[in-house]
Amino acid sequence: MTPSLIHLAAAPHSAPVTDWAGRIAWVVGLLVFVVFVYWLMRQGWKWRGTLQGDLPELPSAPADAGEARLALSGRYHGSTTAGQWLDRIVARGLGTRSRAELALTDRGLDVVRPGATDFFVPAAALRGARLDKGIAGKVLPEGGLLVVTWEHGGKQIDSGFRSDRAAEHAAWVEAINQLSSTEHTTEHTETEGAR
């Protein structure tokens, strides 16, 4: 045998052994990091809710809301401070995304949310509606989101909805804008008459 063959036969090599302790340590470390980040996000959500604690309770629908002008089935994507599409409002359950059933009557907008807090926007609080493409954490194609602007507790709020049939959005914008302008004209006339 040649010296090189003897050397190879004398020193057999085995396959590298997996370092299970190292791998387990990495997996546990990664899980701890993910849980920590989730906890920080949760604390931020609670902190934002505390800062918005001055928002009054949301009104509920009156017993005699009247006949629905329009009805919509779809999703509620959240609410923000009006004009600031990234300033999410989480107080009073407005930050919870959910399915939604909307009904527009002469008295206002009734928002029924299975698994989340329902709310009612009186016609006098409606400030208008528009088609948009995004609201805090949700971006859709241009015109894919129905944004309703309303006032509550002295604060202007934008709430985003997406119908299961997006073609309905235009009719909703027109009806809400018409109802809100009628309400503001009536309020203005009553105020002038009181003077």
Termini gap: 118 Å
| Mean pLDDT over the residues | 85
The description of the largest β-sheet is: 8 strands, antiparallel
Residues in helix, %:
25-40%
The helix/strand order is HHEEEEEEEEEEH
| Structural class category | alpha+beta
Rg over C-alpha atoms, rounded to the nearest angstrom: 28 Å
Count the E strands: 10
Instruction: Count every helix, treating DSSP H or I runs of 4 or more residues as helices.
Output: 3
Quick one: overall form? elongated
Q: What percentage of the residues does DSSP assign to strands (E)?
A: 25-35%
Low-confidence stretches: none
Describe the fold and architecture:
This protein has helices at 3-10, 20-51, 169-194, and strands at residues 70-81, 88-89, 98-105, 108-112, 119-122, 126-132, 134-135, 138-139, 145-152, 155-163. The strands form two sheets. Strands 1, 2, 3, 4, 5, 6, 9 and 10 form an eight-stranded antiparallel sheet that branches. It has a two-stranded antiparallel sheet with strand order 7-8. It is an alpha+beta fold. A hairpin with a 6-residue loop joins strand 4 and strand 5. The model has no long low-confidence stretch (mean pLDDT 85). The longest helix is centred in the N-terminal third of the chain and has 32 residues, at 20-51.
Labels describing this entry:
195 residues, 34% helix, single chain, alpha+beta
